[in-house]
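Minutes, project huddle
Topic: does the predicted pose make sense with iron/sulfur cluster bound?
PN asked that the exact inputs be recorded in the minutes so nobody has to dig through chat later. Recorded below.
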Amino acid sequence: MVKKYFIKTFGCQMNVYDSNRMANMLEEMGLKKATGVKDADVVIFNTCHIREKAAEKVFSDLGRVYLIKQERALEGKDTIIGVTGCVVQAEDKQILKRAPYVDFALGPLRYFRLKEVVEEIFNKREAQLLDTEFSAVSKFDYLPENKAEGGCSYLAIQEGCNNFCTYCVVPYTRGVEVSRPVEEILKEARRLVATGSLELNLLGQNVNSYHGEDANGKERNLAYLLNKVAEIDGLKRIRYTTSYPADVDDDLIRCHKELGKLMPYLHLPIQSGSDSVLKKMNRRHTRDDYLRVVEKLKEANPAIGMSSDFIVGFPGETDEDFEKTLDVVNRVKYIQAFSFKYSRRAGTPAAVMENQIEEKVKKERLQVLQDLLFDYQTKFNKASVGKIMPVLFETKGRHKGQLAGRTPYMQNLYAEADNSLLNKIVEVRVTEASTNSLGGEVL
Ligand code: 5AD
Ligand code: SF4
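Predicted holo structure (tokens), as shared on screen:
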């Protein structure tokens, strides 16, 4: 019988990319995608450690998978349970203590071993395996060739982070910053486009500090790479995420003026609008530095829409600090944003800072911030009504006969459309708008 796999992805886009690469490996072994945990012989949780809630959910969900494993065992079926991603790196040996029924656990830099590990366990040569090495080898050298899953693909170009923001686990879970070589990225990009991608989203934890080597061993920046990627025939849209404000250079800003394929949308997290909080966060920019970058981007492309991440209730954040965050929102008028209550992560400097903020205050601030952010987002969406926008249809919609896609601004748009328009870019007239989505009619 053909064996089946099920991968559940938590967290960021990098994890989505990694999960796709793990699926590639399992399919090379002859496994097929299962419809759910119950009919899967291999279940993998690709996990996120960024906030406590995300990390704890992994363990409660894993417990449920263990029950299914026991039910399957009664039917004589083996189930391999694997955990990958940042929780593995952070928890290390603890993960096998907290979830002893886990068969293997691989850190985010080690999942290239998946094939070998699954084989060892299938053949009962290994009972349980943990690998969290911060390897000197590049996992990308060991991954099988991928192809487009649809019209829009992620492509990891850089991994890890050297910034050490004081609240963040990423430098500890994904390691120091590593950039993939230019030619390797272009090869993958061409392959993804040749197999159906119209849009590429170049990924990195700190993507605009990209400094990969070209074929001659010369270090190149993100702007150079974007120009090269834009030359690929058949590619229609380029995005990159996530950027660090202090690393937005003039070359990159020029891309937003000159590269027609670069979408007019940028996710540029500020985290807080207060200089004193930014300092405690160890961010290498002030609020004015950030606002100047946004101004330059808007000069380069007046149509650009901005997005950001925010943390409220960072240790020591006063009402005045928080007001300054609201002020930044009122200045930039984000078209979309993500906002979080500060979450204390063991091992990070902020976890032991004085003046931790009460949960009640965090909750109140988050509500105020989100009300304001949603207001701008709704206004932007409402202003789209009547416009004609190119939409890349990515999935089926919630209702029959409907497709869901994205506008250049990353807005979700639903329209009645034939399945033949899936993974195509289609002109759509926007007819309605809410905070989270648009409705439209295909022209
Ligand atoms: N608590 C809350 N939010 C966090 N983020 C990162 N670490 C934490 C934390 N400890 C947020 C930041 C980052 C996004 C990916 O997650 O806003 O940009
Ligand atoms: Fe974390 Fe800061 Fe690096 Fe982003 S830039 S991954 S928030 S340490």
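Observations noted during the meeting:
- The pocket of 5'-deoxyadenosine (ligand 1) is lined by residues 50-51, 167-168, 269, 271, 309, 311, 340, 342-343, 345 (CB under 6 Å).
- The longest helix spans residues 359-383.
No decisions taken; revisit at the next huddle.
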